[in-house]
Amino acid sequence: MVWWKCSNCGYLFEADTVPEKCPNCGEACTFYDVSCYTPECGFKGFDPKIAGKRPEESKF
Ligand SMILES: [Zn+2]
Hints:
It comes from Methanococcus vannielii (strain ATCC 35089 / DSM 1224 / JCM 13029 / OCM 148 / SB). This protein is an alpha+beta fold.
């Protein structure tokens, strides 16, 4: 499983393959692979350093 981040809304989700549309905003966005590949985050879940801050959190 890979963790993906929607480039449009910043939604983080786990899936085997990239979906056609974002489960959150419903747009056909670009998805970034934000899976953890370093020991710091334990090789599971997403890497907070790659995933960064969710855009919707910085909007308000
Ligand atoms: Zn989205």
